[in-house]
Amino acid sequence: MKHMNSEVKEERISNKKRIDLFLVPIVLIAAFLNLFKIWTDEYANAYYTAAVKSMLQSFHNFFYASFDPGGYVTIDKPPVVFWIQTISAKIFGFHGWSVILPQALAGIGSVLLLYVLIKRTFGVWAGRFAALAMALTPIVPAVSRTNNIDSMLVFTLLLATWMLFRAVRTVKFGWVLAAFAMIGVAFNMKMLQAYMVLPAFYVFYVVATKITWKKKIAFLTTATALMLAVSVSWAVVVDSTSADKRPYMGSSQTNSVLELAFGYNGINRLTGNTSVTGSSHKQPAQTEQQTASSETKQNSNSSADSSQSSNQRKSSFSQKMQAPGGGNQNGMFNTGNPGPFRLFQKGLSDQISWLLPFVIFSIVGLFAGVKFKGPYTAKQKESLFWLAWLLPVAVFFSIAGFFHQYYLIMLAPPIAAFAGAGAVALWSMYKQHNDWKSWLLPGGILTTAALQVYIMSPYVSSIGVAPIAGVGALGVILALVLAIRKQRKNSLTNYLGAAAMVVLLAMPAYWAMTPIIYGGNSMLPSAGPDSSSGMGGPPSTATNSKQSGFNGMQPPGISSGNSSSNNQMQPPSGSSNGGQMPGGSSNNGQMQPPSGSSNSGQMQMPGGSSNNSQMPNSFSSKSSSSKRKSGGMNAEVNQKLLNYLTKNNTGEKYLFATTDSTSAAPYIIKTGKPVMAMGGFSGSDPILTVSKLKAMIKKGEVKYFYLSGMGKGGQSDVITWIKENSKEIPSSKWQSTSSSAQQGPSGNGTLYEITLK
Questions:
Q1: What is the model's pTM?
Q2: How far apart are CA 511 and CA 526, in angstroms?
Q3: By the 8 A CB rule, do 133 and 27 touch?
Q4: Which of 24, 115, 470, 592 has a CA between 20 and 30 Å from the CA of residue 79?
């Protein structure tokens, strides 16, 4: 009890001390990286922004996180982060920056929380360096500058960590419950990803808490039960509600939140099995894989002619976007190939791994001399916590079949924690010991500089040779000088150590600024000179790094003017099957439509239209507005189409229906009116049947259908029926042309009208 009271008293005294002046510039750096120019991203990730627009309109939409104002289908994630975004939009008005703001603040908050967590046990300098490392980890600001979930998720998990540490210090059961309940809240942000920290929580509480084993088991069991109850609370309410009284649960195949959590957003991420079952047969899954095909590069300032632009996009697409199992050495979405060194491969290393060698040396130093049976110091116990966070998450990303680069933000806290704690620990060992431990600091500096040279080497054409050579040369020189001066303890040695830390953080700092310098991508955020493409890989696959990525697709009704010969998608380099999608046949190495399609060599999803099909929407990344209107699914609409639909609406609930969310999102954002994404996010959700659609048409709920070739899976029967029972609206009545728009990879969609008596 005396120990507990002294801990609390010490904490209160610490809280009354003056603000750490060294922390102020670190927070300002984080604020700049997370907030600067977010107001230029007018619509952010339009899929989520459309949901916020819908959630603002009714409590029903708000509670279920409905994608569309009509309450037809939800987004593919739980609602908590979008509740926060909706509240922000309610307070500040509906803007791109107002839905991004909560994540940007969460990114800054994570920096502060890590400072607090590390400072108490490892010292103020360790806290400062950990906070700075967190702020400058490239993927952290890249994600925080968007309305994606992960920045808020990490902040919530760090808040849970603070509660757990306090529970151990004060030996109060209430804080244990609070910590695990907070993980339950995080589950309602991004489902099973929140549970990745559980090994760290269990191990740390067992090792660090000075209570009997009986109490430990009882407390952890109760806390886990509370966590599970909080986790499934929203899911139980939704799944218990009659399906006709709520939206369909987007991206699930059984209209169930729990199936979504443990399938699409759970085990499938590890196995890479993203296949879905349609109404009549199994189709290749595209769900989130399809996002790459709806990606548009942001902030493009290129003035290249249309044919050059088209060829560059084809080259980028052919090398980055491949069918599952293709031969691209960078893997799907540039996430590398599974294996023990995956985090050091191109595409992932420049997002998160800049300090990994230094972290490894830090772990060795922090655990030097530790005995399995203890006793353990406070530093060793907390180091064990961060190690139990780092290792399972690193293993997951090393073997997982499917994820995006921005998920790597989950590794940022433990890497930054070890960078901060390790810098102080290795420096102390360097100055106080003459044995092998004194070599850890120069060894960590040398190997980290070498890795950074390796990370930057593919970007020579973008950043030049100077920074690469500078980091390599300075890293080697400083490591050697520190090794030579091991026995000399003077101010010069101190300056050399500080200089080494500056060198190791210089290029991560530059990489963290690339979303500001080159433009970010709100759909698939990443850092690097190619950050605006959403692929986050080396720009060597395109003539100009700012033109790489899958760029410039058109909104519904914008004529591309491309010939069919230029619209065909090329296979990834090295692919053994010519790059075709599963079930397709080869035709001169070009991606083929599924068997039975009439499309001549163009990539088309089941249920799509013929030669004129396009990947719906998305839009020129070059806007006349000073604000960016891209973000994966661009919110720029075809005004002529909108005018036609509005003028000819005779009281129908839905402005129009389309296959997937990509075409629907911009019109929801623009008008606030219901637009039906018949197959949910990717067009594969088995939401609609022909009989249901007939009933909706007879009720006067919908009569216009925009089909663009992305419908598949469970929607193929519906799309076939629409085509057979509708009249095609002449394109001259609704289709716009834009000579300034960048060329898309395929043709245009078709507008249909159906009226039944």
A1: 0.82
A2: 10
A3: no
A4: 115
